[in-house]
Queue: 4 jobs
Job 1
Amino acid sequence: MTQARSQQEYYDIGKNQIQVTVPELTDFNDGSINDIILGTVATLTQEVTRLLLDRFKKTYFNSAEGTDLEYLATDHFGDGFARPDAQKAVGIVTFSRPNDLAGDCTILEGTIVKTTADANGESQRFETLSEVTMTGTEISASVRAITAGVAGNVSATTINVIETALTDATITVSNTGAMSGGAAEEDDAEYRETIKTLITSVRGSTKSAIEAAAKSVSGIEKATAHEFQVTVKEWDAGAGATVGESFEIANVKLYVADVNGVASDALIDLVDDAVDEVRAVGVRIETISAVASTINWTASITLNPAGPNYATLQSDTTLIVNSMIDYIEDFPIGQDFVRADAEAAILATWGPAGTNDLTDFSTTIPSGDISHASNEKAITGTIATG
């Protein structure tokens, strides 16, 4: 039982028990002594049950909420399992100038760049994370949003103002890629997923732990690790010769992607830091951005007139299109798009075995299966029914 019975249910249980044990007590009319006693007992029993259930729910991750959920996580696993704060977006900007006549220009750590102010006079501000020196006409730098939250996930080419004065006034700034990783403080549902990911990551240097550590970085949606055995030989630099017999070491390529199917160098740096906490001694892990592979998917559908959503789907198939989008977005890095599997997945939700709203679902675009390399992440392009 996960919720308290109603007061009336407890009243009826008590009444039945009295009638079985003392059949001569028949007056349960409103205001009778039996009615008053049963009503009082039922109310008290309901309140006690609610209190016990409330305390019981707080002992399980799936039912605890708010500060109780955070206390449960930190009490079991330590402070590292506290609810993550709002996260700041990160990314790469490029500083450029028409020529290098002004000489070398040092761009200090903490240099502020920002987007053009909007109609309300507000802009998103970012700071450089390390000092870089421009010796030519172009140099890139990692930046982080000043303020945490999703507002920092600005689009490509929107950062174009240098707030901090530089020694060369001809320098301009821009971001070729979008900023990512900015997030609000996690709600309970998101926090539960974070707890599960952290639990997986503490297993040590297993494939699942490495991937979980990568996904613990705000902004990383998918992570897939591939292990290779590399044959090496020790090299004596002083003697300029190899030493001993060849041997094998583990080499891991970790492909990561944000919601756009790629990852910036700034995100990759954060993943490297997270993965280093679970990496085994002697294991080299190379973090690499996935390559986005856009899939355009159009399907021909046949609605079931007897289906529960027929009236809605007859004029608007957004619900089915959203299922198609979710199917592709859930792909791990490297997974192929197989038409038969995709059709079966949609029919499992909307076909006879699901809601029974569809009698047929057939892919028209693409015309065949789409294969992906181990570093490619499928993302949605044009998704439609027709």
Job 2
Amino acid sequence: MGESNTMSSSEYGKNVLRIEADALRRLVDYVDISFDQAVDMLFSCKGRIILTGMGKPGLIGRKIAATMASTGSPSMFLHPAEAIHGDLGMVTANDVVLAISHSGETQEVVKLLETIKRIGAQLISLTGNLNSTLAKNSDVSIHVYIDKEACPLGLAPTASTTAQLAMGDALALALLEKRGFKEEDFALYHPGGSLGKKLLIVKEIMRKGEANPIVHEDVPLKDVLLLITQSRAGCCTVVDDKGILSGIFTDGDLRRHFDDKPCAALADEPVKNVMTPAPLNIHEDKLAVEAICLLREKKIDELPVVNSEGMPVGLLDIQDLLKAGLV
């Protein structure tokens, strides 16, 4: 077989990327009222969002389903060939089906349409042909048209699947925004791996109970030192009469006051006289990565954790972050 062109492999690769990039740029013009209607329909879905597609569009559908599920929209993929042999029983009247077909005439997908209507599920389609059977039978059809595939034969789905994937991402993220999906929600669905670690909440790894020594500011220093030893902590949180955080006492505070008074006299001093007042702290619902930034920026090892009333509820030590694999 002879060479099909005189371009080098790198030149040919760049040409493929240009074709696909051009397809995405033109796709912006197809984001119109149909897109808004589709997002509203997905947002109002009482059941699940069910992605379906055959071949390469099916693989794109799996990815879109995964993205939607991870961003707060219960989703799944339904293989159209399996669907017509019984798996359509997974679809309910509360679901929204999102079907993907560039031609809009994919046999396996078209065969689903009548049953989907009888079940009562709503149907959204992503297709490059608004005059197709799929588009005409959809409640909403989003145009995902491309001028040409990047494949020189015009056969292998390339630019078309890139466009489908991008439009699916646009739907998923517009839906995320409409739901008001936050970082803490994302953390709920991503508990594992490095991503899950980055999304850990402070209260999930802070020291609590006996591991978090808290004393009133009038407690003598000798009692504070005993409590710190018993709790195996590196510091002690100090509160006022209302239980509000007023200070922190660390070994650094102890060393700084050794030069001021004899050890015996210092032992009877109330901790408020030797503590660091108004210490840096963090709210229990903040991300652990925010605590890391504070500890590094201020070059400290401990950080009191407070609730919305300013009361200490925990203690975050650099060692806790090390154990969690965050540093």
Job 3
Amino acid sequence: MDRLDELVRSHDACAYVIYASSADPDMRYLTGFSVTDPVIFLKKPGEHGILIVPDMEAQRASHESNATVITRTQAGLQDIMKEEKDLTRAYALMIHQIAGGPIVVPSTMQIGFARALEEQDLLFIDTNTVRTMRARKTATEVAAIQEVQKVTEEAMDRAIRCIRGSVIQGDYLYRDGTQLTSEMIKQEIHMSLFRHGCSASDTIVSGGDDTALPHAAGFGPLPANKPIIIDIFPRSEKTGYYADMTRTISKGRPEPAIIEMYDTVRDVSEDTQAAVRSGMMGSDVHQKALDLFEDAGYGHNKEGFIHSLGHGVGLQVHELPNISLSGGLLETGNVITIEPGLYYPGVGGIRLEDMGLVQDDHFENWTQYHKELVL
């Protein structure tokens, strides 16, 4: 929490305050508490953070959170509401009494709540401090993400085994006499995740022409002899941490252009991973991928490699650091993806995504699932 203390002191403020539910990754990170409705976290320099919760949540919060837990009653809210009936303003008064002066809040603060706070005292807006703190993972966070990754690979294996076991009839895939669809594979994936306490939304199982669109979710019958992109990024219901991985496969042999694209993407994946280490800039790793694709004859002109090479993963599936043209410094403890891809309308798309840990002198790839195009 030293970073928060430095932030508060840099503004000559008295405390850092966040008001959110645990759906906000900064709140989950700072408190370790999982809660549906918004609660208040307040941190003064040199003091332990305070988590202010409804009375009914106090016992559970004390068990789950690493902060000092007090109830809204203990924080004086009931007394304040004898005079101030508007709940938002009453919260602001309560925070002002505890903080004792100006506060720093995240840029995601609800505007109505922020305005109520402004009525009480000076307000400073911070954008990236907690996001930057979250980028370097602790051993506990690393273990949590690795656990989700194992579940993700099992779900990927279930999906690919299902496609591998299908038969080709005409232009499409069939299994047990039924046409195999994107929706059927997603259901298999989600059932596998659910059994291990994870959930996923926006899972990608796209085939054929849809693979030329990086984030096309995919729907309907899956084609034979064409690329199928499977992108799974589930979240643990228990810890809140994500994993992320992508594989591209084809049931039956696709056209030579797809095979050449696949081989190139696989090579770029391996070469860029080999370059990653602490102290590098994310922008340099991304540029290396661009250069490798260019050397292989896949220049970038609104098609080809048209997205960032990777991103951080944690309490959000996309968080710092960015592995892009604007990517900053990579540090030991960053959990990142490396996901090169090529996309050509009328031909199709290829993407391969691994996730792992940035170390002092290498990238520790956690994704052990094989890369195999033709099933």
Job 4
Amino acid sequence: MGEILSKLAQLFIQTIPTVIFVFVLYAILSWFLFAPLAAVLKKRDEETKGAMARALEQAAAAEEKARQYDAAFQAARQETYRLREAAGRSILEDREATLKGARQQSEALLSKAQASLATEVILRKKELESASQSLGQEIAETILGGAASDGAGRIQP
């Protein structure tokens, strides 16, 4: 057994430079490769998280602007409808005023025409009475031969 132990000790002593070399290699790789690589990966992760946060903020801002745009668009649409309705009401009011004026003018013309017609009727009745009286007198003179009337134009009994 002593021989196995001595061989093991000799093997252990032969592996010491390899172990030291592996530790030195690990330290060098850690110093020159793994540390910068970890720093780059950490920086990339931080930048990715920052870019994601900025993207979320920009998406929220864009959504807010879209809501504002929709609200402004809806307000403009309502204003347009209100203006259109006001213009329609104004047109109807103008039309109603025009019709009222025309109705008043036609009523005034009608009243004037009726008054003129009433005056004309009265005048014609007077003319007709006068003409009928003189016609009646002429008829009476013609029928009775002119002797039956007195000087006042009345027929005597």
